[in-house]
Amino acid sequence: MRDQQKLTKEIKSDLDSIRKCSRKETDEANSIINLWNCKTEELDCDYNKGITRSFCDMIKRQATITNTRMKVLTGKILQHCIKMIACPQPCRFTAVALGSLAKGEATPYSDLEFMFLVEEKTDLLIKYFELLAMSVYFVIGNIQETPLKYMNIEELKNFTDNGMNGFKIDGLQQKAGNIPTGNGTKEQKNKFILTVDELMTFIGT
Q1: What interhelical angle do 46-84 and 2-33 show, nearest 10?
Q2: Residue ranges for the chain with pLDDT beneath 50
Q3: What is the pLDDT of residue 148?
Q4: 3-state SS of the chain: helix, strand, coil percent to 5?
Q5: pLDDT for 118
Q6: 193-195 vs 111-118, strand pairing mode
Q7: Which of 103, 99, 116, 105 has its CA nearest to residue 170?
Q8: What does the pLDDT look like over 33-61, one tens digit per residue?
Q9: How far is 51 from 46, CA to CA, in rounded Å?
């Protein structure tokens, strides 16, 4: 219990730090665009074009840095979850980012979409990766930024959650579920626990 509480505090602290840095960098970018000359008759003058280029370049750099920070945080969570499972890794595997993290567009409030690419699959191996995935979900859920509607609980279907929408796993709705165990339906069960051959087939469809 104490280890879990410590991990939750660490993740919250890391997220807070990432968000503060992101906010500071966004404010710096805004200070550049404020230099735009709106009084000139030629709004697309060379001066304004230079300001716009500088603004865009800074936003691109900020997005890359923020995405890297979120990737490091996600890796930290995964490593902790691997250690939490009291058995050796059953085969070689890697976690592969999907969605905004894969595209380099993740923000400190993005949902997490990912898959497990595994060396081989048996019923026993699947149980390990299901457990690992669920451990990641619960660790992120413990941060308490996951709206209850994302948990796909029937009794909460009409529940209105007005809390802040923060760092969370991808939802369990019909059109979501880009996570190892899928969106909870039979059709999507373990949709993103794949071997290389299965991934190639999936990409080709």
Answers
A1: 170
A2: none
A3: 52
A4: 55, 10, 35
A5: 96
A6: parallel
A7: 99
A8: 889 888 888 888 999 999 999 999 999 99
A9: 9
pLDDT for res 146? 66
Q: Which amino acid is at 108?
A: P
What count of other Cβ atoms lies within 10 Å of the Cβ of residue 98? 15
Hey, which residues does 115 pair with through a beta bridge?
Answer: 96
Q: And the tokens for 148?
A: 């209850």
CA separation for the pair 137, 134 (Å, rounded): 5
Q: Provide the residue ranges of all domains of the chain, joining segments of one domain with +.
A: 2-204
Answer whether 169's CB lies under 8 Å from 109's CB.
no
Whole-angstrom Cα distance, residue 45 to residue 67?
A: 33
Judging by DSSP bridges, how do beta strands 111-118 and 93-98 pair with one another?
antiparallel
CB atoms inside a 10 Å sphere around CB 137: 22
Q: Which residues have a Cβ under 8 Å from the Cβ of 44 and sit 6 or more positions away?
A: none
Number of Cβ atoms within 10 Å of the Cβ of 172:
20
Rg (CA), the chain: 21
pTM of the model: 0.84
Tokens of 153: 């609980």
